[in-house]
Design goal:
305 residues, seven-stranded mixed β-sheet, 12 helices, elongated
């Protein structure tokens, strides 16, 4: 299992077959807080998250970190998904006069909520999303409601700390674009961190099968961690073909792929840093800043992580 779930119960997973190549949601929340305070100097934040379990996982750590760092949570709204209107909720939120909105909800839900913010306020407020809002479906829904220019101007998000460059990424992008005949929207995912990491998981599993000459999970699963982290004497490979060739010559390999290097801990969790991003008019992700290790550590500490 290569999972994109960020729920905290997997932080210390005892599942032998579980692998997570993304940080837990609470770290996503900490990154969002750090970006709001350090880059944008927002200090009054409205939390507007879907009432689903995945979205709500962000709320508590974000609230704790904001409060401990001297910011104010003006309101905390868990909104029901898929409603035709949120005028009551929007009116209550606007009455608290936030500097910005933190959000994660289905694209259609955020589209409705944010369009009513624009209608009732006379203009949009700055709004910031988790990495889940970096998605073509979300972009299409929200720009359809607000207009592209509005989203480009007022929206920011945090995403996984990937560079979208290097030989591993180039190979991924080539393969992704080649799949457009079966899935026309495939190229739109070329700069979404989650997609990169799932691709890397697939390659790690494939190379583990090659290394053990077995497709039996009980045989190849323990090798995945070695492929991801590398062992003494490993050769770094960035493409599947290079990995197969190195294994055939008797070498151990370390996969550094589309999402960069992997660093599995004892719970098969691998974590990286964060970037601050926005959309351009075509829906592409544009990096506008990074959270340093020190900045991330300070917010994690404030949040109790």
């Amino acid at each position: 299992m290569f999972c994109m779930t960020g729920q905290s119960e997997f932080n210390k997973s005892t599942f032998t077959y579980f692998h997570r190549l993304v940080p837990p949601d609470e770290f996503d929340a900490y990154a969002l807080v750090g970006s709001a305070l350090d880059f944008n100097h927002y200090h009054k934040i409205a939390l507007v998250f879907g009432n689903d379990i995945g979205s709500q996982a962000f709320v508590k750590p974000a609230m704790t970190a904001l409060q401990n760092l001297g910011a104010t949570v003006t309101i905390n709204q868990a909104i029901a998904l898929g409603q035709s209107s949120y005028r009551t909720e929007v009116t209550a939120m606007l009455a608290t006069h936030p500097d910005a909105i933190f959000t994660e909800a289905l694209g259609s839900t955020d589209a409705t909520y944010l369009s009513e913010v624009k209608q009732l306020n006379g203009s949009s407020l700055p709004f910031m999303g988790t990495s889940a809002t970096i998605d073509p479906v979300w972009f299409a829904a929200v720009t359809g409601a607000l207009g592209v220019a509005d989203v480009v101007q007022n929206f920011q998000a945090v995403d996984l700390g990937v560079t979208f460059s290097g030989p591993g990424y180039d190979e991924f992008k080539t393969n992704l674009n080649a799949s457009a005949a079966q899935f026309p929207d495939a190229p739109k995912y070329s700069q979404r961190g989650a997609t990169l990491h799932l691709y890397d998981g697939i390659i790690q599993a494939a190379l583990a099968m090659d290394a053990t000459k077995s497709t039996d999970p009980t045989v190849y699963n323990p090798k995945i961690k070695d492929i991801g982290n590398g062992v003494s004497g490993s050769v770094v490979v960035n493409t599947y073909a290079a990995g197969v060739a190195a294994l055939a010559s008797g070498k151990s390999v370390q996969w550094v792929g589309a999402g960069g290097a992997t660093s599995y801990n004892q719970y098969n969790n691998s974590q990286q840093g964060y970037i601050l991003v926005k959309y351009d008019a075509s829906g592409n992700e544009v990096t506008i800043g990074k959270l340093t290790t020190a900045q991330t550590a300070a917010v994690i500490s404030a949040g109790g992580g």
